Amino acid sequence: MHCTVLSDRTILLVISGGIAAYKSLDLIRRLRDQGAVVRCVLTKGGSQFVTPLSVSALASERVYEDLFSLNDESEMGHIQLSRESDIIVVAPATADLMAKMAGGVADDLASTVLLASNKPIMIAPSMNTEMWNHPATQRNLKQLIADGVTVIGPGSGDLACGEVGAGRMIGVDEIVSAVEAKLCEGAVAIDAPLKGVRALVTSGPTHEAIDPVRFISNRSSGKQGHAIAAALRAAGADVVLVSGPTNLPDPVGVTTVHAESALEMEAACREALPVGVAICAAAVADWRPKAFAPGKIKKGAEIPKFEMVENPDILAGLSAAGSSRPALVIGFAAETSDVINEAKRKRARKGCDWIIANDVSAAAGVIGGDNNTVHVIDESSVESWPVLSKVEVASRIVARVAKYFLGATAEQDSQRTGA
Prior knowledge:
By secondary structure, the protein is an alpha/beta fold. The longest helix is centred in the C-terminal third of the chain and has 28 residues, at 390-417.
């Protein structure tokens, strides 16, 4: 299921001059795949990284570059561009353009359109980590947030300049999800099959501390869980996302609770109840060290030995019978062999209604990647899906959830009327 709020909506994409500008080409394609009309403003710096011809070919629209174009400005083109869009997305948003926006500078087409707009504005920052952390940039960021601009990212990791840290533009899938959620904030009535349903999603890994600098964890990126949370919100649900440590931005319109350990995640899930549906996509560590060392464990002659204790089973706990059990509990099974049979056994053991099985062996490239291959298993069937983006997997899961709740509502209505 796609959030139909993107269908036939006009998105104005501002592409500024950063190395991440190449990602804007994929962003155009993904937005158009969702049914959106994409118009593009390309700054002078942006044109050093992507060509107007490439942008125009993917958008199937002309590209706007010049503030003083006689043909455009005879009809106040910069005003029309801002007024005719449903949302403006700046990706990448450089430190320079953020500074212009915060200061109200309008000295080129992009900054003028942004200043003249009365529509929602979303930016995806991209810059060197020192530029991102600079007091001036952080001051501008606070001003933009105070002005109502939605900021998504940046992520952390290896940067094009060779340094490591915050400043990397978030992935295209995350931007698309954020745009969907932002537009759905004011348009959930268009297609909101889950309006009135409260949903809980867990996402990402957990960190189980050994000492102040070391922990036990896994390679989960959180991309699938975050995409599910955004898709639920796009379908009208009231969503609580309990996220372990990830490099992902909080999905727009979702209540996000950050948890470090399995114990913290379990407590946050209990606090979120009651919910109609719980989707446990987090990769929760099975064990944790019994004792936490208050100081860094020093390297010595002997290899340290750790006594481990079992972490709480969040999925089994939510699946347990009782007044607080969600109507629908969905788990994930990350397996490296005999995927479907292992997942069937896990579903029976945990007591959940559905389980989403996926192959996380190294050859599959699922962990940390943008695609997933899953099998949806319930009490009576196995439904295998092809390789899909994690955003598309999330959309399909949410469509199945919506179908479940619509069926439950129809059954209740039938019982009330005696049909």
